[in-house]
Amino acid sequence: MIRALMLLTLLLAAPLQAAIDLYQFDDNAQQDRFHRLTEELRCPKCQNQSIADSDAEIARDMRERVARMIREGRSNEEIVQFFVARYGDFVSYRPPVNERTAILWVGPVALLILGGLGILLLARRASRRVEEDDAE
User: What is the secondary structure of 50-64 as a DSSP string?
Assistant: First the structure.
């Protein structure tokens, strides 16, 4: 009975072991680069997860490609540019500043300024109403 239970436990644990990605590198520097790059690249399917955090098939493929390119001796910039060329600037958490990505850089600041102006105008309008009510 105990043997059957142990065998069942091992069979149920096998898929969990297969889900872990293990990559072999020549040294710790390559492994550190791999971890930095997989945190820096965004999963095209998940959109707000890095490829390190995503379980999507495309993220697994991207992690495998990053590991292969590191072993081939490619630079971090070459690796990021490969994925940007394939998936667009969105794949990088730090997209370059150019006309296509300007909204990503200017948009939040513009919204903050517009929101501040809106609050300022509402506050002025409210204070005028209070002054008018006090004058009556």
Answer: BTTT--SHHHHHHHH
